[in-house]
């Protein structure tokens, strides 16, 4: 295991410490060391915006803490939900008296812990609304969309929710904007190589050399098919087809595109994928308004990439243009 | 080779095409498809700022094109210098009538081609000044600093040079500021795993599992020693020691820190390294003003990280604070 780590059981601890040191102008730790808080939070009279999730997806989730973005983030162990207590503490840290929206991904542990945290917050007198991301098209059929997992579309959801809250909107308005953002997102992942949880010490699943896993999840969840590794052009074409067939957008729709590496994919390969992604999306009569490309939502050292397409409307365009300040260029 | 590529001989072509599509709001291609130009360049009455280098280091070099940053970038084949013609075309694309500064790394091919391009530009009546980055402390002893290679310190050099040019400074003032920036930078790389040139198809050097290469170069150039893989804490301590022993900075000096992944290192491991890097630098009585952390200067899919420390003064602090717009958060 060729990794920069100390005690494998302390990876999250060490990650968060080093992160907060690097970005102390933007974030701080709450009393609970599993909660990262934006320096200016809570902002009186603003809806608080919270997320949380397992570690190992950096810069998600903590890297999106900041101004006009997330006010507080609950940090879980590697690939595991934060505790209900951490979600609760994040909600309290973000609360500026106008309610808190929790924007998180559809995983059993997170669902359970956010639900418990919401009840605890109610006892504090904090009103909480939630939006559950389910943009991963390969994790369940369209007829069971509520079963789908949340993946990189969460970043668009946070950006939209964070921006809406920054405009002074109400809790219901922020919730509705974030819900719309994720409703209009579809994502797919393709894996070329597995990742390793340091405490385990060997890959937690296999991808045979010469093959790829189409539809892989953010923790190596099996996709819809394993097939021989194709060219970047063919892979990109398949990704666009799967995402847009599910999306069913009318011609002329404006979209935002996010191409993210999964941790160990060189950036130039994302550009190579994007060359075809852009052509394929345009060939379907959609208009790409903006493309975000880089390591936005990773899975430790997984080799692979994800594509997210969000269908825009005027409100979403305005919110995407709101200036943010977090640790990533948005 | 588990990679997202098409024809291995077309990697650079495909990379640049996909990059320009993603960032067409910031960059465009020159007539020469091996030259990326900032959309607003050339700016009349502003010193042009140019760099260039081999591909495979994305987001370097092309990703740093933009406002108050690089005006034009010459693109080489993978790990190879751009041609003299491409450097020349980049100089012409950046020329706003006030001269052009070329800020590049100390490699034989780049030195030769920039020199030829400078002569060609002189015939066009364009005055060119150059700064050669040599921040890699392990590539030659301090007594032969002129032999040292340029690595991630180039990013600070570009930021300072680009910002100085944006203030309306003269060619000599921009050159002097960029020269000061790189003179005050020291960098080191540590490699845990090799990278593969797609056209070759197998790693171009070996790092035995369980070992690491201390002082590795950006193309896998051998470092100063191969040793058993240590903990992140020990690695970070060694990196800081090597960089700061060479630097010899007085107590109280303010510094900027850049921790970059080499392409296949998960971001959380850079945070883990930074936890110790920050403590060690502070323990030596230096003051960290800011930390940049992420995949800023990579080497295809190399597993490893670099540390750069730049000693600041008032001018450099002011220039680091100039707002830029390129594809990376600076």
First-last Cα distance of chain A = 33 Å
Supply Rg of chain A: 19 Å
Helix content of chain A: 25-40%
- Tell me which oligomeric state these chains represent: homodimer
Strand order, sheet with most strands of chain A: 1-2-4-3-5-6
The overall number of domains of chain A is 2
The CATH homologous superfamily of the largest domain in chain A is termed: Dihydroxyacetone kinase, domain 1
The structure class of chain A reads alpha/beta
Largest interface, Cβ cutoff 8 Å: A-B, 62 and 61 residues
What fraction strand of chain A?
15-25%
Query: Count the strands of chain A?
Result: 12
Under CATH, the topology of the largest domain in chain A can be stated as Rossmann fold
Sheet of most strands of chain A: 6 strands, mixed
H/I helix tally of chain A? 8
The averaged pLDDT of chain A comes out at 97
Inertia-based shape of chain A: globular
Q: What is the CATH C level class of the largest domain in chain A, in words?
A: Alpha Beta
Domain DhaK (chains A, B): 7-329
GO molecular function (chains A, B): glycerone kinase activity
Keywords (chains A, B): Kinase, Transferase
InterPro entries (chains A, B): DhaK_dom (IPR004006), Dihydroxyacetone_Kinase (IPR050861)
Task: Tell me what the structure shows.
The structure is a homodimer of 330-residue chains. By secondary structure, the first copy, chain A, is of the alpha/beta class. Chain A folds into 2 domains: 176 residues, Rossmann fold; 128 residues, Hypothetical Protein Tm841, Chain: A,domain 3. In chain A, 32% of the residues lie in helices and 23% in strands. Chain A is built from 8 helices and 12 strands. In chain A, helix 2 crosses helix 3. The mean pLDDT of chain A is 97. The interface between A and B is large, with 62 and 61 residues.
């Amino acid at each position: 295991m060729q990794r920069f780590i100390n005690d494998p059981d302390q990876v999250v601890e060490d990650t968060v410490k080093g992160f907060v040191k690097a970005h102390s102008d933007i974030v701080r730790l709450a009393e609970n060391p599993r909660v990262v808080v934006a320096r200016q939070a809570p902002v009186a009279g603003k809806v608080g915006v919270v997320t949380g999730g397992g570690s190992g997806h950096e810069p998600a989730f903590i890297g999106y803490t900041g101004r006009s973005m997330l006010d507080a983030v609950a940090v879980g162990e590697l690939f595991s939900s934060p505790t209900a207590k951490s979600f609760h503490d994040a909600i309290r840290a973000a609360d500026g008296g106008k309610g808190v929206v929790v924007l998180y991904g559809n995983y059993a542990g997170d669902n359970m812990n956010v639900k418990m945290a919401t009840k605890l917050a109610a006892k504090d007198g904090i009103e909480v609304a939630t939006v559950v991301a389910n943009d991963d098209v390969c994790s369940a059929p369209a007829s069971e969309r509520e079963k789908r997992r949340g993946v990189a579309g969460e970043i668009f959801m946070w950006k939209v929710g964070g921006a809406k809250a920054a405009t002074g909107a109400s809790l219901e308005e922020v919730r509705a904007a974030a819900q719309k953002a994720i409703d209009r997102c579809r994502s797919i992942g393709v894996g070329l190589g597995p990742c390793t949880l340091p405490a385990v010490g060997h890959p937690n699943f296999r991808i045979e050399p010469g093959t790829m896993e189409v539809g892989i999840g953010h923790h190596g969840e099996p996709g819809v098919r394993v097939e021989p590794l194709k060219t970047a052009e063919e892979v990109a074409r398949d990704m666009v087809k799967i995402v847009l067939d599910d999306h069913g957008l009318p011609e002329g729709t404006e979209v935002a595109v996010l191409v993210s590496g999964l941790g160990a994919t060189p950036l130039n390969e994302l550009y190579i994928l994007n060359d075809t992604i852009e052509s394929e999306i345009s060939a379907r009569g959609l208009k790409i308004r903006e493309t975000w490309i880089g390591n936005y939502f990773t899975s430790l050292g997984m080799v692979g990439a994800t594509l997210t397409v969000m269908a825009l409307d005027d409100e979403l365009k305005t919110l995407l243009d709101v200036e943010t300040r977090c640790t990533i260029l948005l």
